[in-house]
Amino acid sequence: MIDAIRIVTTTGTRDDAQRIADALVERRLVACAQVGGPIRSTYRWQGEVHRDEEFTCTMKTARALYERVEQAIRQMHPYDEPEILATPIVAGSAGYLRWLAEQVDLS
């Protein structure tokens, strides 16, 4: 069974999130990606509190591809320091996890 993870990033526009999703699926670095939002983010950056509308891009892939996915996101992402977080998928339907494994390029 695949060692699967979910990776999430946020962007300032839906177009940026969709561009990242499309590129990573096309390159077979992730099996699928969902773009959601808008959401309202509150965070501290460079000593100031900011409140901004953002969009999420949530992706499913193999743990072995994390570094390649992170590098690709960083190349496309407009933020100086984008949120890129991965969490393990500890359980899932066998059929979905098999499909996920078939969609990514582990070579």
Could you describe the 3D structure shown?
With 107 residues, the protein is an alpha+beta fold. It has one domain (4-103): Alpha-Beta Plaits, CATH 3.30.70.120. The protein is 32% helix and 38% strand. It is built from three helices and four strands, in the order βαββαβα. The protein has helices spanning 14-26, 66-76, 94-103, and strands spanning 4-11, 32-45, 48-62, 85-88. A four-stranded antiparallel β-sheet has the order 2-3-1-4. The longest helix is centred in the N-terminal third of the chain and has 13 residues, at 14-26. The mean pLDDT is 97.
Radius of gyration: 14 Å
Shape: elongated
- The string of secondary-structure elements, in order, is EHEEHEH
Q: How far is it from the N-terminal to the C-terminal residue, by CA?
A: 16 Å
Q: Beta fraction of the residues?
A: 35-45%
Strand arrangement, major sheet: 2-3-1-4
Are there runs of 5+ residues with pLDDT below 50, and where?
Answer: none
For the residues shown, what is the average pLDDT?
A: 97
Number of domains: 1
CATH third-level topology: Alpha-Beta Plaits
Helix content: 25-40%
SS content category: alpha+beta
Number of strands: 4
CATH architecture grouping: 2-Layer Sandwich
CATH class equals Alpha Beta
Oligomeric state of shown chains: single chain
Task: Count every helix, treating DSSP H or I runs of 4 or more residues as helices.
Answer: 3
Largest sheet: 4 strands, antiparallel
